[in-house]
Amino acid sequence: MKKNLIVFGTRPEAIKMAPLVKTFEHYTDSFETKVCVTGQHREMLDQVLDFFEIVPDYDLDLMKPNQSLFDLTSRIFSELQNILNDFKPDFTFVHGDTTTAMVAAISAFYAGSKICHIEAGLRTFNLTSPFPEEANRQLVSRVTNYHFAPTDNSKGNLLAENIKSNAVVVTGNTVIDALLIGLKKIERNPSQEVLKMKELFVDRKVILVTGHRRENHGKGILNICKALKNIAIKNEDVIIVYPVHLNPKVQKPVRDFLSDISNIHLIPPLNYPEFIWLMNRSKLIITDSGGVQEEAPSLGKPVLVMRETTERPEAVDAGTVVLVGANAELIEKEANDLLENDDRYERMSKLHNPYGDGRSCEKIIDFIKKL
Ligand code: UD1
Ligand code: UDP
After folding, report:
1. What pLDDT, in 10s, does the model give residues 77-125?
2. From the CA of 278, how far away is ligand 2's center (Å)?
3. Using CB atoms within 10 A as the burial measure, which of 47, 217, 330, 337 is most buried?
């Protein structure tokens, strides 16, 4: 029997690896699968583990407030060594471009385990944006054995780096597998939080905001806050709902700048199914998130992306996503335009599924079974 170790540490990795963990539960005759969380995130990771009912076999519990990349990286390396030596996995699964993914991939390489990279081949080709994620995902690709690319475009990026085509499989993105699970559950059984939001937002246009990217820390966040304040003041019929990332470098400026504006609601990070319910209820989304750019086309929600570059060109091509940078004037201008210009709004809110049909995990496991 082959042994799998699935490693993740942050909220988005957990959302996108959870359906894979659950799908492997149907294959216990072929694989022994263990889950290792680094705890790079804590509360935001636990929200997802609770929702998907995943109890990790190993929890390194590494998060520290305001952690540095140096400290986090070195602590993940030293802890993972013990787990790899103890479990000796045939396959180690890592996801995307976080510090957890990069360190887990290199650790598995040192330990002689085959590396399976989920969400492989995303590129901006700009090492400063997103930072440090573009470097992380390129480093992971260098040591990966099997690359699970979400789209043909991401496969193309890997082939251009001389990775052999029989080591790359296009599967769609597991974020859509998670989205379908989450939507089904929240529609069948709306939580108290959803019922409260329904009542609070009745008859109001909702703009949903998230932001956390390192390259926006400092000046970028202040620009974003300035734009949100102006949008809120100009459009009294709008409610801006902003679940604020727990990073103190985000919490402090956002709360200092936006707490006193009556139609801006600053709330803690939402549970995943409640967040996707709110995406669906929103008129417009303003974000610098990667995952939200992938979910939005399937929900037909226009997104202003507060970044200079994106590794998700499919969502731009679909017409769902517009890049606005952390540029206060541009964020304000584009948001006001989408609130006023119905034709443009209609064009941007068509449903598209560039990231697949929610069956990515089955495709990943089909491939692994044949190895
Ligand atoms: C990380 C990832 C980023 C991903 C993001 C998802 C890296 C380098 N960055 O960035 O790619 O997009 O997660 O959200 O891997 N915190 C808490 N509780 C939590 C989570 C975070 O208090 O549950 C606070 C802590 O003070 C922590 C800080 O946020 O030190 C930063 O967390 P960290 O994972 O280092 O960076 P993110 O900006 O979250
Ligand atoms: N998300 C969530 N609660 C929130 C905000 C986001 O569950 O309050 C989900 C969202 O649906 C998406 C993922 O978190 O699947 C995105 O995470 P994040 O933006 O932190 O990271 P990124 O995708 O940019 O790496």
Report:
1. 999 999 999 999 999 999 999 999 999 999 999 999 999 999 999 999 9
2. 12
3. 47
Of the candidates 133, 134, 288, 332, the residue annotated as catalytic is 133
Question: How long is the chain?
Answer: 371
Quick one: tokens of 334? 């584009």
Considering the domain delimited by 190-349, tell me its CATH architecture.
Answer: 3-Layer(aba) Sandwich (3.40)
Task: Determine what percent of the chain is predicted with pLDDT higher than 70.
Answer: 100
Query: Out of 42, 204, 214, 352, which one is annotated catalytic?
Result: 214
Of the residues 79, 97, 311, 314, which is catalytic? Answer: 97
CA 347 to ligand 1 center in whole angstroms:
34
State whether the beta carbon of 273 lies less than 6 angstroms from ligand 2: no
pLDDT band at 14 (very low <50, low <70, confident <90, very high): very high
Among candidate residues 1, 182, 3, the one with its CA nearest the CA of residue 93: 3
Same fold, 2-173+357-369 and 190-349: yes
Residue 14: φ, ψ to 5°: -65, -45
DSSP string, 86-125: HH--SEEEEETTSHHHHHHHHHHHHHT-EEEEES-----S
Distance 248 CA to ligand 1 centre (A): 10
Architecture of domain 2-173+357-369: 3-Layer(aba) Sandwich (3.40)
Closest Cα to atom 31, ligand 1: which residue? Answer: 247
User: Region 289-316: what's the mean pLDDT?
Assistant: 96
Is 41 near ligand 1, meaning CB less than 6 Å away?
yes
Q: Is the CB of 244 under 6 A from ligand 1?
A: no
Please report, for the chain, the start and end positions of each structural domain, with discontinuous segments joined by +.
2-173+357-369, 190-349
Contact call for residues 140 and 101 (beta carbons, < 8 A): yes
pLDDT digits (tens, 9 = 90+) for 335-360: 999 999 999 999 999 999 999 999 99
pLDDT digits (tens, 9 = 90+) for 41-70: 999 999 999 999 999 999 999 999 999 999
CA proximity to 50, closest of 198, 362, 269, 356: 269
